[in-house]
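Pipeline run #58 for the internal structure catalog. This entry was flagged by the ingest filter as a single-chain record with no existing model, so it goes straight to prediction. Upstream metadata was stripped on purpose; only the residue string is passed forward. Reviewer on rotation: M.T. Logging verbosity set to normal.
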Amino acid sequence: MMKNFIRINTSDNVVVALNEIIKGTILDDSEVNKILEDIKPGHKIATRDINKGENILKYGYPIGHATENIKKGQWVHTHNIRTNLDGTLEYNYNPNFKDIRRINKPKTFMGYKRKNGDVGIRNELLVVPTVGCINGIAEMIVREFKNKINLENIDDCLVYKHNYGCSQLGDDLENTRKILADIVKHPNAGGVLVLGLGCENNVIDEFKKELGEFDNDRTKFLITQTVSNEIEEGVKILEELYETMKNDIRVEIPISELKIGLKCGGSDGFSGITANPLLGEFSDYIVDNGGITILTEVPEMFGAETILMERAESEEVFEDIVKLINNFKEYFLAHNLPIYENPSPGNKEGGISTLEDKSLGCTQKGGKSKVVDVLKYGEISRNKGLNLLNSPGNDLVASTALGASGCHMVLFTTGRGTPFGSFVPTVKVSTNSKLYQLKLHWIDFNAGVLLEDKLMEEVLTDFIDYVISVASGEYVNNEKNGFKEISILKTGVTL
């Protein structure tokens, strides 16, 4: 039987409702007792009288302050709480390393070993346009190819459309080149046709410079303006690539080769209680076994950034985290936009009141491991351990960035639900069982059972087994549904 509420930390002055509680309900609990208002699941209840101006404590940390006197048993939300956050800050390095849970679980998965030593978990044939104005041509090439060839022994053949590659300058053009190059070089791609127009800013000759070294047998190029029948020529190239990659086989690979992206979206009041802590435990498991995990969504670190800073493995990494946080705040300020108005309408409906409330839940995806590196947008990860990545919180932009940094898959927690997928498998983890049961065709794993008397160790064991099965070839819902997209960060002008 599910309890009525959960206390996250002994120092908290609020608890979180686990189900709907009607006004006037008498709870068999000395801390809450009588409920003074209707309370939705995921929302907060005061456990004592809280004075105006006093901090609201959740997860053991302030998530804002009361804007009015709040009575014990009263609903605590956006109507009576405000953020404490304001502007950029100065920070000091105060290391505080934590012990992590050791899990005796499988140490291998079945993946693809590439010629350069990289490892993939999928074997896909891709068309990557250098510019958005040939998206339609790319789709025609793939369609004709699929009509001609009965595809076997590969996972997919598709186009990663985007709107960029021309009329761009500076950082925007650089971001486009970096992300597209990362997709081309990603080890989940067994073969890639890079499709150019010929007159775009992102011309193939310049794009090759961004690519650096590549496998000539696996990466081919076509400039559509230079041939009379670009569809025919494109299909020929895909046929060549398919013949090269169709005999690729899965082999046993150490877990230490896995790179896992950590992401959340459509969060609710349970995100920081169930799914995000589960990902944190899983991240620690991967790191403990020599792998890489990557946490992003920088604006959703605001208010909880010191927790990450005190886990920086060195003062140099600490300084990089400070720059990551403050530079992103300056990005908001440069556009005359508020820094701390992050919780979305869906977040608020689900019980999240302030950015601190959201961030303290979000950062739990990073577990307790040391932070070993801070990655620039579009930079591929190399250092084993927990990495932070510069990217906004937008689901598709951030998930694309995680894939571009080398992640084999993205683990995506959600309390509200979303069907999307990026160019790597995007595993949806629900924060509550109601969402899981409602959207079985969206959600891949239910962390809501943690509210139903299932122990973390038990759920973690099941989750590890599931992720290993995905790494070994089991499709997740976004793959089954064909929901695979990319989105590239844009910050500047369009010519």
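catalog note: DSSP finds 13 helices and 21 strands in the chain.
catalog note: The radius of gyration is 24 Å.
status: ready for reviewer M.T.
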